[in-house]
Amino acid sequence: MGPSILLDRKGPIMSNARLEPAKLIEAAENLAPLLRDNAREAELARRPLDEVIDAVRESGLFALMVPECHGGHEADLDTYFEVVLTLSRADASMGWLTAFYIEHCFWFCGFPEEFQKELFAEQPFVLAPGSLSLADGRADEVDGGYRLSGSWQWGTGIVHADWVMVGAMLTDADGNLAPRFFALPRDEVEAIDTWYVAGMCSTGSFDIEIDDAFVPRERSVDLLALLSATAASEFHDGPLYRTPLVPILGFASALSVLGAAQGAVDAYRAQTKAKLAAKETRVGASIDDPAKPSVVAGAALTIEAAELLLRDVLRDVMEQRNTASQATRGAWVSRMAHAVFMCRSAVQDIVSVTGASGLRLESPIQRALRDITTGSNHIIFDRESRYADYGRTLLDQPIQSFLV
């Protein structure tokens, strides 16, 4: 067992006023300067800063996907898209973390209704990491619930968490195995500080360790029902709650990468304009290397194309929801993965023309490259399997990925 860490969890409680989509997007725009100004400090701290988390709490954004009956805003995927993208342009790590906090509240909407009422009784959101990795834990059925043990990586959100969600294979009373998802209060799990990484540093995604914890039956849900949206749609009528979980997870990750790439373009433009302004004492001052604008233009156009691809997937998801075939859902995630790798390649090109200054760790362009490289390695974007599945779809063959 590695060293544990005592984590801060409490902060100001937001008001119960429901915000319309335009106000939620405006709230994200108002938060962006704070995220941008604190990005480097948070990266060095290897965890989200308390004052930034508190500001997002007060903005109301964490309740974006929570149903109105629980005091949330019940906003749809298009609002989520704009909010996460706006935050991620300022700081990809905080965009990533906020995106996961928001969509993990969506996951809770598939748990039994009794537990949902408990979760949202005091405030219209819950801050919780969530790990779908089934191989990392084991659960056994006992009287009134389950005994759960395991160790899970990538606990994004554990630093300020109220609750924790993890997946495990359940062994029932008859010895049968089934994938299941479990929720536990934060103080019943241990956070292990293993977060020494190249990118997405300030997410503070420490490991989660659980040792023979009892989980009441109402704090668990069938994982397949959660993935397909049949669990959430049983309790909530809005179209959001008929949306499969994996595309939402895909947007949470992909939009953080897209925002980082767009932020890199903005940073390069600002940096280059400042250099040109310093040369204005010379008549007709211009960029010394005429090839650089061409490289950056190509990168910017690639990032624009990636955004259009993601917006096309968004439109398709919102039109079809849980009526889409497995092949269509697989194609959605394959296209998201392609957009992510388009962004990664484009930012690599931008870094190649920034000169020596682009190698400094405090450079926002360098941080964007680190964050994108790390974010693109999320399991949902496994390029070989996603491309292979898309190829099978083109040939009218069944896909093989579980996460669709």
Can you walk me through this structure?
This protein has 404 residues and is an alpha+beta fold. The chain has three domains: 21-119, Butyryl-Coa Dehydrogenase, subunit A, domain 1 (Orthogonal Bundle); 130-228, Butyryl-CoA Dehydrogenase, subunit A, domain 2, CATH 2.40.110.10; 244-394, Butyryl-CoA Dehydrogenase, subunit A, domain 3 (Up-down Bundle). Helix content is 49%, strand content 12%. Strands 1, 2, 3, 4, 5, 6, 7 and 8 form an eight-stranded mixed beta sheet that branches. A hairpin with a 2-residue loop joins β2 and β3. α1 packs antiparallel against α2, α8 (245-278) packs antiparallel against α11 and α10 (326-352) crosses α12 (383-394). The chain starts with 20 loop residues before the first helix and ends in a 10-residue tail after the last helix. The relative contact order is 0.12.
